[in-house]
Amino acid sequence: MRILIATDAWHPQVNGVVRTLTSLARSAQALGAEIHFLPPDGFPSLAVPTYPGLRMALPSRRGIAERVDAIAPEAIHIATEGPIGWAARAYCRRRKLAFTTSYTTRFPEYIAVRSIIPAALSYAVLRHFHSAAAMTMVATASLRQELGARGFKKLGTWTRGVDTSLFRPDHPAELDLPRPVFMTVGRVAVEKNLDAFLALDLPGSKVVIGDGPQKAELQRRYPDAKFLGEKTGQDLTSHLAAADVFVFPSLTDTFGVVQLEALACGTPVAAFPVTGPLDVIADHPVGALDADLKNACIRALRISREACRNFALENSWESSARQFIGNLTALQPNRSLRPVRRAAGGSAVHG
Question: How large is the C-alpha radius of gyration of the chain?
């Protein structure tokens, strides 16, 4: 199956959506599926004032059509609700093509903490966006239930996974810091709720890995915490493996792939009992969930690192990719998609 995924989130961004899509493509190839991406690359763009360093693509109708037609996909999936997502949605609507979407980011909550726009208005816009899809895929049962209560229809499940060959407990980094080490990884921005972690009175050391618009402010306010910047690949793996507890303070993430990455490195998770941690950790003995985050952090210190690793081994990206492809295959009989002749000189789509 030749699949086209339209996404506003793409390299060099470092976030859960980009990691998910990259891992999906790699695993889907092993299952006989060919995934191509329609990212923001090559389109004009504007800076996003509320996200320093981030730019918003301004795709043209013709540019979108040329890229999609050049791939001639058998299935189209729209991963984000940004300009690329809306443009791909409009393309499918004009041509009466079925498509699927995924709900991966809590934009209503993110926007609400950065502006005066109420979450209810944002949810209305997102309901409209996803209502045209043959299926809207969500990562967890609790999110599916929540969106259903908010009026979203045709919801399906697409879980996430972890690359257990990359994220391993072997070769932890040498951290010259007082133990225990409590670590968090992710975009350093207000929606990640890092204050809830950094303000805790904890023994040992607090470490933040990642970059973002709130980094300078948090460094000033919490001089005792160690901000190590952005890390990827084996460097990230070795740091996760060196932590005693991985702290996930977010209240708005829909899943939090980094939780599985930490567990694959043998590091237990401490988090609030909200969507994401509730689904990933649940009642498994690999993390501590508590409305009192300090209590969760201290309890997590007693969790078996071997149990964390074994749990992660059961949540592979191959299983996630198989579920994603299965969703598309199940919808195939109802699709009006048909092969499209490749346009001469059509723009290449990154895949």
Answer: 20
Confidence of residue 350 (pLDDT cuts 50, 70, 90): very low
Residues in contact with 123: Cβ distance below 8 Å, sequence separation at least 6, in sequence order: 108, 150
Phi, psi of 32 (to 5 degrees): 90, 10
Q: Classify residue 45: in a domain, yes or no.
A: yes
| Residue matched to tokens 């966006």 | 129
User: pTM for the complete prediction?
Assistant: 0.81
Spatial contact of 188 and 218, defined as CB atoms under 8 Å apart: yes
SS (H, E, C) 46-108: EECCCCCCCEEECCCHHHHHHHHHHHCCCEEEECCCCHHHHHHHHHHHHCCCCCEEECCCCHH
pLDDT digit string, tens, across residues 54-78: 688 999 999 999 999 999 999 999 9
151 and 195 in a single domain? The answer is: no
Question: In which element (H, E) is residue 184 found?
Answer: strand 181-185
- Is 304 contained in some domain? yes
